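User: Structure with magnesium ion, tokens only please.
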Amino acid sequence: MPKIHRIETFIVTIPRDTPYLGPLKPGEVVNERGYLVRKANRTIYPTQDRSVLVKVTTASGAVGWGETYGLTAPKVIGALVDDLIEPLLRGRDPRDVQVIWEDLYDILRVRGYQGGFWLDALAAVDIALWDLCGKLAGLPLRKLLGGERRSSVPAYVSGLPRATIAEKVELARDFVDRGFTAIKIAAAVSADGVEAELAALREGLGPKVRLFIDFHWMYSAGEAASLIRWLERYDLGLAEAPCRPEDVEGLADVARQVAVPVAAGEEWRTVFDARPRLAARAVSIIQPEMGHTGVTQFMRMAQLAQAHHVHTMPHATIGLGIFMAASLQASSSILDLPFHEYQHSIYDRNAAFVTGQPACHAGAFDLPQGPGLGVEPAEDLWRYAIKI
Ligand code: MG
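Assistant:
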């Protein structure tokens, strides 16, 4: 029987010329720890890209890789792995991965640790254990998650990081010419106003391209509903995160009042986050983020969504490509999955840090090949990594 022997954690920091979401705006400052708060979406970011890798090694030397968010306080994940997770898992069979997730969740749920950093740590370990399961079975992860439903995963383009509307339309046109059919813009970074941007894109791209907006939790339900109804004239195809994360009733109000599908879920950790939103019919689309959920909860959310006739469109954010590979593997299996997010400015760069990363081209991701996740950290990545 394979046995978990060691669990190691690494912080990986990748330099970038311009901070995520563009140059500093008036009033934005970098503090002594290297963080800035983005005024528009009120969220804190490091000036460099940062992620946390987890490596699980079995007694016989097999290795599984996992990853979670490392944007803020990344040492927390290392502390949780060292102090709690590794001692509890040493000697256990990695193929008991779902039982292990439930056991770890159970030991802290009654203290109120049902989200946040604790669940991020569980996500990273869960991904690494699923990677091991695939490698031990000699199968790609998707074959363990129900099977390969699709051999490529449709991708929507996320973000048009250009200064002017004309340049944004030009970039969007370039993606459309390369076979992409859906594009998402972010309301929080729309300097000229989201309506002007949406109108220009609709005008410049014609009626067939699907246009989505991420509202970054900015509005009350009433504000969101009236804005989205106004934007329906541009054939808006998706309204993401219009209300604050806690406002389940507000989200349900918005969903009832607009013709545009409402999407949410990038901050959810477990199926317990998805359940009340689905029950309230607050979303038409869920957007689980593999870096927060791990494979076990990602699949459970998608299956619960499916039981509510709700689509899954996975979120994809700043990462190295390890949890992204897990997300693509899972996305190959899920029934109702119209698109996966494609953060082109991050994903394309990651090809240098991950061996086996599949290409995203002509509107779709290829699937990783080989057993487990099908990707591994590349030699180049270790220049930017420190062990915690
Ligand atoms: Mg978002």
